[in-house]
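Researcher: I'm preparing a figure for a lab meeting and need a structural model of a single chain. I don't have an experimental structure, so a prediction will have to do for now. The sequence is pasted below. Please return the structure as tokens so I can convert it later.
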Amino acid sequence: MSDDMTGTGLSRSLRDDRDAEAVELPSFPSSGARGLTLDEVELEQVVAALEASRSPATRRAYATAWRLWSEWSTERSANPMPADPLLIAAYVAGLAEAGRAMASIDRALSAISAVHLDSGYSDPTRHPGVVRVRAGLRRTVGVAPKRLSHPLTTEEIRRVVEAIPDDLRGARDRALILTGFAGALRRSEVAALTLGDVSFRSKGAVLAVRSSKTDQEGEGQLVGLARGRRPSTDPVAALHRWVALAQMRHGSDPLFGPIAWSGERSRRTPLSGRDVSRILQARAAAAGLGDLPISGHSLRAGHATEAAARGVPADRLARTTRHKSAAALARYVRPAEALSDTSSADLGL
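Model: Understood. Here is the structure written out token by token.
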């Protein structure tokens, strides 16, 4: 056990698996004066709970953002922590000048805030000057993403899946794409599904999404997949066929895993969210859609856009997409409403 876990406090670095960048867990004041003694197992239990307070993706994002901030500060012979609020203001203003999106700027501020608070310092990003600079950047930079993922339409999904070869890898990719599109799933949600999360019913299938971006505490959400009208795009049939071909037996088996080099069996390890994006991009390119800005989000965005265009009420759509913010869902619903409500159709043009 390291000294900081037995003496002045309890802390541990969270490291990015790829870059080995550290973000500190919160430090607790020494408990020696109160006569408290914890053995190594008890301390490890506390550390494990602290680590679980943030998702792995958040820890990686914070680690990268903190490294960039630390390097920038060091180049100016300044301390990254505790940080001078004016220095932070200059840093984020520079990010905006370099063309970084507001989401990236907010991520940098969140990482700086988290590391300071975890280390026992006050939050320098709450300084009135930093707050006002951020408000100014939101007005000048804007909050819309710089590059939106193309929302795939039902017709484009049909083109993609009908171009997929009928082998084991093709069965997986077809089921993955149709499940993600029909369930309005994030790429991380697709990757995290297990066999035990799927329940086949007479009218379709029900997916148990056990944790997601908007459900960090893992309360779980149910998503229904209705049977398709066409055999080639029926998500339930594609999923059922894939499960049978992959010969999954245990509920803990990843629903979508890598295919062995032989192409004849599925490995019992999960895909990553990046894998989901790469699979979709490769299959879309093979179907002649390679010029579109397609990412893993294209499945979820496509579901929302198509459903809104077909007149699905916003409240019903939100139950499937699991958007907690009406504003987040509105960007899919408003274009459809603008076209259905516009008076330009009555101008006789």
